[in-house]
Design a protein that fits this description.
alpha/beta; Arc Repressor Mutant, subunit A; Rossmann fold; two-stranded antiparallel sheet; 9 helices; globular
């Protein structure tokens, strides 16, 4: 196996770390791959760490010992988070998003891969220490956000269905009640989607009274699973909410259908902590 030039080694090593966030990679793996001494690999990792940290991409964590190694932890600082939130507020305030019944059109935002990736990085920063084993969401609009977040955390995704499907195998189903309309419904999750007694991070696109999120929390109890956290792109100002412990990027304060006006403000993300200064 040929020996790599240092410039090529740095590029390839950075790519491997960024594509495998939170995955512990032994130094010996890099040393063998690039035919280089571990001391040289350590110097390379120090350079990568400094660049990632200074550019607000994240940081490298070194785990000592025979079973140790290095892993990349995605991080988004406060200024980058604020810029993303401001961008979302401006976009969501467009009166053209108002649909009949006072609903908001969000599909274009959830179809913007660049925007969704950035939202996933923010949620991954906030919930990096949550100890989650999986990310869960309910079909269908929350799926892009859940996958973006899970990708940054190196976790699997479990999708809660509103109707059970034969292709899901054995499922757990619970009945739910919408917090706003009091409409009955059901949520189902395949028994193979989530390990018994695990910890799940709930990610969704929009939360009003919180009936759907509360349903997912209740569903997790059927798996003896704990809630590692709840993150939503947008919540809505309501008098009574079924979920209080959550993180939101933006908050819709008002939707004036007649006047064609939407008032959107930053959510509670920056108040809740978990985002580094810098």
């Amino acid at each position: 196996m040929k020996k790599w030039k240092r410039s090529a080694r740095l590029v390839h090593m950075t790519q491997q770390l960024l594509q495998n966030p939170h995955r512990l990679i032994p130094l010996g793996t890099f040393a063998e791959r690039y035919q280089a001494a571990k001391s040289s690999i350590s110097e390379d990792l120090a350079i990568i760490h400094e660049v990632c940290r200074s550019e607000g991409l994240g940081e490298l964590e070194t785990v000592p010992g025979a079973a140790g190694g290095v892993r990349f932890l995605p991080r988004v600082n406060r200024s980058s988070s604020r810029a993303l939130i401001d961008r979302l507020c401006r976009s969501l305030s467009d009166p053209g998003r108002i649909l009949p019944g006072g609903y908001l059109y969000l599909s274009d935002l959830l179809g913007d891969t660049s925007l969704v990736r950035e939202i996933g990085r923010v949620f991954a920063s906030v919930f990096a220490a949550s100890g989650a084993d999986a990310v869960i969401t309910v079909e269908t609009k929350g799926i892009p956000l859940a996958y973006a977040t899970a990708c940054q955390l190196g976790l699997p995704v479990a999708i809660v269905r509103r109707d059970s499907r034969i292709t899901e195998g054995s499922v757990v189903t619970i009945n739910t009640v919408s917090g706003s309309s009091k409409r009955l419904g059901s949520l189902s999750l395949s028994r193979r989607s989530l390990p018994e007694g695990g910890r799940a991070l709930i990610i969704d696109d929009f939360m009003k009274a919180g009936g759907t999120v509360r349903g997912m929390i209740d569903l997790l109890r059927e798996f003896n699973a704990e809630v590692a956290g709840v993150g939503v792109m947008t919540d809505s100002r309501v008098d009574e909410r079924l979920v209080e412990d959550y993180v939101s990027l933006t908050t819709v304060n008002e939707v004036d259908v007649k006047g064609q006006r939407i008032k959107v403000v930053p959510g509670n993300l920056l108040e809740r902590g978990g985002i580094q200064d810098g």
